[in-house]
TrEMBL record:
Pathway: Amino-sugar metabolism; N-acetylneuraminate degradation; D-fructose 6-phosphate from N-acetylneuraminate: step 5/5. Residues 20-230 form the Glucosamine/galactosamine-6-phosphate isomerase domain. The lineage of its organism: Bacteria, Bacillati, Bacillota, Bacilli, Bacillales. InterPro entries: Glc/Gal-6P_isomerase, Glucosamine6P_isomerase, Glucosamine6P_isomerase_CS, NagB/RpiA_transferase-like. It catalyses: alpha-D-glucosamine 6-phosphate + H2O = beta-D-fructose 6-phosphate + NH4(+). This is Glucosamine-6-phosphate deaminase. The keyword NAD does not apply. Its EC number is 3.5.99.6. GO terms for cellular component: cytoplasm. The keyword Hydrolase applies. One of its GO terms (molecular function) is glucosamine-6-phosphate deaminase activity. Catalyzes the reversible isomerization-deamination of glucosamine 6-phosphate (GlcN6P) to form fructose 6-phosphate (Fru6P) and ammonium ion. Belongs to the glucosamine/galactosamine-6-phosphate isomerase family. NagB subfamily.
Amino acid sequence: MELRRVEDYDAMSMLAARIVFERIVNSERLVLGLATGSTPEAMYDHLAEMLNRDKIDLSHVYTVNLDEYVGLADDHPQSYHQYMDNLFFSKVDIPSDHTFLPNGAAESLEAEVERYELLIEELGGVDLQILGIGRNGHIGFNEPGTSFDSRTHVVNLTETTVNDNARFFDTVEEVPKQAITMGLHTIMNAESILLLVSGDEKEEALECMIDCEVSEELPATILQTHHDVTVIADDEALE
């Protein structure tokens, strides 16, 4: 695991964008695993700017997102489909049939998680997976106690996660209580992982991810066992 310390959120975002940009331009074919939430927002801005500045062709790039809320249609303003369209897909020239997210409004969630897991396999797996980390150590929406052997599945969100995501909704009651997420086994199958951590509220989770015993009670500790993880963390997260 490589730890790269930077001054602040924008420096973290710029370095992450540069790493992803270099991977895009130096790959003949690339499957990117994408994350949502507040942490990668500026990274997407910087990355879109870099790609457009250099007029980079993205026809060789495929994307698979980590997760999506259950019960939100693709066009719901707080769905991760809309998040990705607004922050990245609409800003760059990537074929729409190369971008994939779970369908949180699927009629059969059981069929949907199987479909999404198979889709990732058929793409050849993820080459570079971008991650954030929750205050309780979750990655994707894999909450504490999730099996390290888990594939894409439906998860019940913890009260901590629901409250953390309430800022994106008018009220905490509107936050979905379930999500579809790539499992920990699915995430760990990625060739490389890039973890972004910013802010003092993530300090404890980051410290434990690095130093604590590997345990399903803190899902991010599984990253200690991956062969190629880069962590970009700002000063506040490392105080």
